[in-house]
Design brief:
275 residues; 6 helices; alpha/beta; globular; two-stranded antiparallel sheet; ten-stranded mixed beta sheet
Length: 275
């Protein structure tokens, strides 16, 4: 089984937002793999290993791919340190691409790689657009299951049963492979991923996130294949969506205390004008 995991390099969301000349000032910013994409890497690893033995299964491959500047190679090496086998780096700048451009590039990479599954985060934690997965599935003509909280591979690996948390509970949908799955935060729960090889009663350590790359993995990642390509290699035109400017929200006015409900209702009607 081959799994392709698209991932994005993003500025650490914990950084304090500063603006300069109408844009977010990223001077000195630290970068991470977008959280949901890191969860997608973890899900792919669990599908391709016997968790009870901490051993990779034969005939499995995990390929990570990102579109980003030269510095994004660091995040690809981190993914390979976690256990991905090789990486593809399409070198570009954030301003040269938008969601549809990313989907077009990934469509061509999927055509070359021919994976059984594409697993990716439901959305990037910087733009929060939640678009690329759906666009890519549409362009590929593949079945898709979004916001996955659980994945269970069929015994013949020809399908996957995906659990999705919805407003009134959990919705299960079975998708034949090849398929595209976008993952939500609960995919890293101890028993959320089942591959038919890891014993059914096995539970991964209770964690709020993906595994941390061990020293052995970090050292091994230095010699794993990382293919570098240019955005121009994929014939992608100018982005349709461009950032025009960024403004901070105005500071909220101080709240008011009211002595009773009638006064509150009166203010909501006459001042706030929401009733």
């Amino acid at each position: 089984m081959k799994i392709l995991v698209p991932m994005k390099r993003v500025a650490d969301p914990a950084m304090k937002i500063k603006l300069k000349d109408g844009a977010v000032d990223l001077t000195g910013a630290s970068y991470i793999i977008s959280t949901f994409d890191e969860y997608a890497i973890e899900a792919a690893l669990r599908l391709c290993e016997d968790g009870s033995k901490n051993a990779r299964l034969p005939d499995t491959e995990i390929v990570v791919v990102t579109l980003g500047p030269d510095e994004a190679a660091k995040e690809l090496r981190k993914a390979m340190g976690m256990g991905a086998d090789r990486a593809i780096h399409v070198v570009t700048t954030d301003g040269a691409i938008d969601a549809i451009a990313v989907a077009k590039v990934l469509e061509k990479i999927v055509a070359e790689e021919k994976p059984d599954l594409v697993i990716m985060g439901k959305q990037a934690v910087d733009g929060d657009a939640n678009q690329v997965g759906q666009m890519l599935a549409g362009k590929l003509g593949w079945p898709q299951a979004t916001f996955a909280a659980s994945i269970e591979l069929g015994a013949d690996k020809a399908s996957a049963l995906v659990g999705r948390e919805v407003d009134d509970g959990v919705e299960y949908k079975r998708v034949p492979t090849p398929a595209l799955i976008t993952v939500d935060l609960r995919i890293v729960a101890p028993t959320s991923v089942k591959n038919g090889v890891t014993p059914a009663d096995f539970a991964y350590p209770n964690s709020d996130g993906a595994r941390i790359a061990p020293l052995k993995g970090i050292m091994a990642a230095k010699s794993k294949p990382l293919a570098t390509k240019a955005l121009a290699d994929f014939g992608v035109g100018e982005p349709v969506i461009r950032e025009q400017g960024v403004e901070l929200m105005p500071a909220r006015a101080a709240g008011q205390f009211v002595p009773d409900v009638p006064t509150l209702v009166n203010k909501l009607v006459t001042e706030a004008k929401v009733l």
